[in-house]
Amino acid sequence: MKLTATFAILGSAALSMVAAQTGSFTNFTNIATAPTQFTATSVSLSPVPLCVQKTCLTLIGNLSTPITQGARNSVTGRWLDRLVYTDTQDLCAVLAANGTPCPIAAGAITLNVCHPMRSMTPRNFPIIYQYIITNGDGGLLLAQRANTSLSAKDCP
Ligand SMILES: *[C@@H]1O[C@H](CO)[C@@H](O)[C@H](O)[C@H]1NC(C)=O
Ligand SMILES: *[C@@H]1O[C@H](CO)[C@@H](O)[C@H](O)[C@H]1NC(C)=O
Ligand SMILES: *[C@@H]1O[C@H](CO)[C@@H](O)[C@H](O)[C@H]1NC(C)=O
């Protein structure tokens, strides 16, 4: 109850900042501590504001190792250091639904990882999203953080 009230107060303050953003969000920070199997030239999220029904993480870059079955996309979101969003997806299932089934061959790639946001997502709050994508072989493909005020709303 108390937490809900706090969300409501800070949420209205964040609203105008969130509403000002349009298009896609590209200011990701690479948080991997070692080389990754995917070398990104661009990581972006769209639409902005994020859409509950379907949000896309678009990855452009080079893949050193094919993406195989068992790859996972783990998404977390933090609001004021609190874990408020968590979702782990079967990456190959998501990619297959987007028309690019695994295996994804090594080399230059553009991948659209489009999926619904979970309904537990707080709406209109500044969230720091973190994407950790691991390959079927257990290797790290990508670890990126979006440090911004992104919220998920119903699609227009
Ligand atoms: C991009 O993110 C970094 C790290 O959070 C931040 O310092 C910088 O101001 C951001 N740039 C833009 C254009 O928002
Ligand atoms: C992209 O990855 C492939 C496969 O590992 C490699 O042969 C190629 O040199 C890489 N290209 C660049 C530009 O890094
Ligand atoms: C987010 O960016 C702000 C400003 O650039 C910075 O002070 C803060 O430490 C960053 N937070 C994280 C978790 O990277």
From TrEMBL:
Residues 1-20 form the signal peptide. It comes from Linnemannia gamsii. The lineage of its organism: Eukaryota, Fungi, Fungi incertae sedis, Mucoromycota, Mortierellomycotina. This is Phosphatidylglycerol/phosphatidylinositol transfer protein. Keywords: Signal. It comes from the Eukaryota.
